[in-house]
Design goal:
Thrombin, subunit H, six-stranded antiparallel barrel, 333 residues, eight-stranded antiparallel sheet, 5 helices, 2 domains, single chain, mainly beta
Length: 333
C-alpha cells in the first residue's frame, strides 16, 4: 500500500526529535527513496547526514532505522549545512539576483521587491541585511555588498527596516531579545518604585521558520521589480515535492533544481560555534554556493516559492515563501 504524504508527515512529526538528536544528522524531511543512486517513486523519511558512515561503525542508538512507523527511511550524505554568504557589479536600478548586504558583512543576494502598506522594500535574509541579529534599524545596506567593493560613500542602496530574529541553539548569538525586553521593563519598574519584575525564560530548544529581513530603498528609482536572467515574478505558489525550481544569485547566477524534500527540519551552522534549528523548510539539490543567500526561488511559471538561505556542497535549503510573507507582513510587488 502506498504511503500518503499526510501519513508520512504525521509519522515524521512523532520521530523528528529523536532523529535530529542522532550524531551526524543535520536535516530530516520527506522525499523519494533512492536506489542505486536514482530516485524511485516511493516516498520515505530522509535523514541528511554530514558524512555517511557504514552501519558497522555505528551503535544501535546512532543508526537510522530502516523503517519508522511502517515508513521506509533513507540516508543522504550532504556535508555540513551552512548559511550561504561570501564572492558583482553595481546595478542601478538593481534587480533581484545581484550582490547586496549590510555594511558589516561580506555579500549576499538581493531577493526581490516586496511591499507593505504601499511602501516598497528589498527582501533578503536576516544574515545578509541584518548581520545575523547584530544590526539595527536604519543601518546602511550596500549594493554591491562589501566583499564585491561596495562602499558606504557611493553604494548605499537602502536602510535596514525590519528583520525576524534568528534564535540560536548555542553561542553568543543566542536569542537574547526576550532578555533585553525584560531588562528594560525591570529598569522602568525600579525607577517608578514598582515591585513587579519580569524574567526571560530560555527553553531547551528554539525553532525558526525563516531567515529574512527587509530594507527600505533610499530611492525607489534605484531598484527594479525584476530578477536577473529571470524577469518579473508572476506571483507566489506553494513549493511541492518534485517541483522544478530555479534561482538567480550573486555567486552562481541562474541555476535550476528540483524540490527533493518538504517539511524538512534543518540544523544550520552560522559560524563561531552558533547553530540554529529551522523547521518546515524546502530542500533541493546543488543549485547554490556561498553568496547566493537571499535569492528567491521560483517555479517554472516564475512564481516565487521560497527564500534561499543555506546549503552544503550538494544541498540547497530555502524557507517557504508563505512563512516569510506571513512573518514580515509583506506581499509581492
Amino acid at each position: 500500500m502506498e504511503n500518503s504524504l499526510s501519513k508520512i508527515r504525521e509519522t515524521l512529526a512523532g520521530v523528528n526529535q529523536m532523529l535530529m538528536s542522532k550524531p551526524n544528522v543535520v536535516a530530516t524531511g520527506i522525499g523519494y527513496k533512492r536506489t542505486g543512486g536514482k530516485a524511485t517513486d516511493d516516498l520515505c523519511i530522509i535523514c541528511s547526514v554530514e558524512t555517511k558512515v557504514a552501519a558497522a561503525g555505528l551503535s544501535k542508538r546512532e543508526l537510522v532505522p530502516p523503517f519508522l512507523g511502517g515508513i521506509p527511511t533513507d540516508v543522504h550524505p550532504t556535508g555540513p549545512i551552512h548559511v550561504r554568504q561570501p564572492p558583482t557589479g553595481r546595478f542601478r536600478p538593481a534587480p533581484g539576483g545581484v550582490s547586496t548586504g549590510h555594511f558589516n558583512i561580506t555579500a549576499g543576494t538581493l531577493g526581490c521587491l516586496v511591499k507593505r502598506d504601499d511602501k516598497i522594500f528589498i527582501l533578503s535574509n536576516n544574515h545578509v541585511l541584518a548581520n545575523s541579529n547584530k544590526a539595527e534599524a536604519g543601518d546602511v545596506i550596500l549594493q554591491p555588498g562589501p566583499h564585491d567593493g561596495g562602499a558606504v560613500s557611493g553604494d548605499t542602496i537602502g536602510k535596514l527596516y525590519e528583520f525576524v530574529p534568528i534564535c540560536f541553539e548555542n553561542g553568543s548569538g543566542r536569542c537574547f531579545f526576550a532578555r533585553g525586553i525584560s531588562s528594560l521593563f525591570n529598569f522602568m519598574a525600579r525607577i517608578t518604585g514598582s515591585g513587579m519584575r519580569l524574567f526571560a525564560v530560555e527553553t531547551r530548544q528554539t525553532e525558526n521558520l525563516v531567515d529574512c529581513a527587509i530594507a527600505e530603498p533610499v530611492d525607489e528609482n534605484d531598484v527594479v521589480n525584476e530578477i536577473l536572467q529571470i524577469g518579473t515574478p508572476a506571483g507566489v505558489a506553494e513549493g511541492k515535492l518534485g517541483m522544478e525550481v530555479k534561482k538567480s544569485g550573486r555567486t552562481t547566477g541562474l541555476t535550476n533544481g528540483v524540490i527533493e524534500q518538504v517539511h524538512a527540519t534543518v540544523r544550520v551552522g552560522f559560524g563561531a560555534g552558533r547553530t540554529a534549528l529551522f523547521t518546515d523548510q524546502l530542500i533541493a539539490g546543488a543549485m547554490s554556493e556561498g553568496g547566493d543567500s537571499g535569492s528567491v526561488v521560483l517555479n517554472s511559471e516564475n512564481e516565487v516559492v521560497g527564500l534561499l538561505f543555506a546549503g552544503s556542497v550538494n544541498t540547497t535549503v530555502f524557507n517557504r515563501i508563505q512563512n516569510v510573507f506571513d512573518k514580515m507582513e509583506i506581499t509581492l510587488v
